[in-house]
UniProtKB/TrEMBL annotation:
Domain of life: Bacteria
Source organism per UniProt: Caldithrix abyssi DSM 13497
InterPro entries attached to this UniProt entry: cNMP-bd_CS, cNMP-bd_dom, cNMP-bd_dom_sf, Env_Response_Regulators, HTH_CRP, RmlC-like_jellyroll, WH-like_DNA-bd_sf, WH_DNA-bd_sf
Keyword annotations from UniProtKB, A to Z: DNA-binding, Receptor, Transcription, Transcription regulation
PROSITE patterns registered for this protein in UniProt: CNMP_BINDING_2, CNMP_BINDING_3, HTH_CRP_2
Domain Cyclic nucleotide-binding: residue ranges: 6-126
Taxon lineage: Bacteria, Pseudomonadati, Calditrichota, Calditrichia, Calditrichales
Record keyword Transcription present: yes
Gene Ontology molecular function, alphabetical: DNA binding; DNA-binding transcription factor activity
Every HTH crp-type domain range: 140-213
Transmembrane region(s): none
Listed GO CC annotations: cytosol
SUPFAM superfamilies, alphabetized: cAMP-binding domain-like (SSF51206), Winged helix' DNA-binding domain (SSF46785)
Protein name (record): CRP/FNR family transcriptional regulator, anaerobic regulatory protein/CRP/FNR family transcriptional regulator, cyclic AMP receptor protein
Pfam families (alphabetical): cNMP_binding, HTH_Crp_2
C-alpha cells in the first residue's frame, strides 16, 4: 500500500488498519468494472494493469476521459456524491484491483485526514486535465487537438530522458481519436506531420517527443 499515492505519508499502523478494509480482486482484460449510470457503492485502486475511463456520446461515439494505471483510483465520485456512475471503466489488460466499500472509505477519510488531502490533490489534478481538455476540444485545430492529447499522455505516463519524453506504449489510433475528439484518419495524418516537422519520432508503438519544452510551448 505504501506505493499508492492516496496512502502516502501514512505510518505502518494506519496502513495495516486500511488494508483490513479492502479486498483484492483480479479482472481479465476487457472486463467492464463500472457501467455509466449504474448505482454503485464501491471504489477501486489499481494495483497492476490499466483501466480505461470512458463515456458514450449521444451519437454512440466513445469518448475516452482517461487511462488510469497502477496506483490510480476510480469509482470515488459515486461514493462521495451519492449519484450514479459518471463513466464506464474497462480493463485494458489483466488487472488487479483493491475494492473498498463506501462505509469503509468514508471511515478512512474520517480517521486519516492525510488520505482526504491526497484525494483532493488528485481530484484537483483531474479537474485541471478536464479544463485542458475542454480548451483543446473547443479552441484548437486538428494538429492542436492531437498534440495536446499527446501532451496529456506524456504528462501521465511519459518517461523523461534529457529533454525528450518517451511514451512507451501509444494507445491505438482509434483510442487517440476518441481522446482528442477527432477521427482516426486525422490522428494518423497529424502524427505523420508532427514527425515531418521534427516534433516527434515514432518507433513501433513507442512515440518520442523530441523536445518536450518546445512541444509544450508550441501546442498548449
Ligand atoms: P464514479 O462516477 O463513481 O464511476 C466512474 C469513475 O470514473 C468516476 O467515479 C471516477 O473515478 C472516474 N472518472 C470520471 N471522470 C474522470 C476523468 N475525467 N478522469 C479520470 N477519472 C474519471
Amino acid at each position: 500500500l505504501k506505493t499508492i499515492p492516496l496512502f502516502s505519508e501514512l505510518d505502518d499502523d494506519a496502513l495495516n488498519d486500511i488494508a483490513r478494509m479492502m479486498v483484492r480482486q483480479t479482472y481479465k482484460k476487457d472486463n467492464m468494472v463500472l457501467i455509466e449510470e449504474e448505482v454503485g457503492s464501491t471504489m477501486f485502486i489499481i494495483l497492476s494493469g490499466r483501466v480505461k475511463i470512458s463515456r458514450i456520446s449521444d451519437e454512440g461515439r466513445e469518448v475516452i476521459l482517461s487511462i488510469l494505471v497502477d496506483g490510480d483510483f476510480f469509482g470515488e465520485m459515486s461514493i462521495l456524491d451519492g449519484q450514479t456512475r459518471s463513466a464506464n471503466a474497462v480493463t485494458l489488460e489483466d488487472t488487479e484491483l483493491l475494492l473498498i466499500h463506501r462505509e469503509n472509505f468514508l471511515r478512512i477519510l474520517h480517521d486519516y485526514p492525510q488520505v482526504a488531502i491526497n484525494l483532493l490533490k488528485e481530484l484537483a489534478h483531474r479537474l485541471r486535465r478536464s479544463d485542458e481538455q475542454i480548451k483543446s476540444l473547443s479552441l484548437q485545430n486538428a494538429m492542436g487537438k492531437v498534440a495536446s492529447t499527446l501532451l496529456r499522455i506524456a504528462d501521465d505516463s511519459g518517461i523523461i530522458k534529457q529533454g525528450q519524453v518517451e511514451i512507451p506504449q501509444l494507445p491505438p489510433q482509434q483510442d487517440l481519436a476518441n481522446m482528442a475528439g477527432t477521427s482516426r484518419e486525422t490522428i494518423s495524418r497529424v502524427i505523420k506531420s508532427l514527425g515531418q516537422l521534427g516534433y516527434v519520432k515514432k518507433e513501433g508503438s513507442k512515440l518520442i517527443i523530441l523536445d518536450y519544452d518546445k512541444f509544450r510551448e508550441d501546442f498548449s
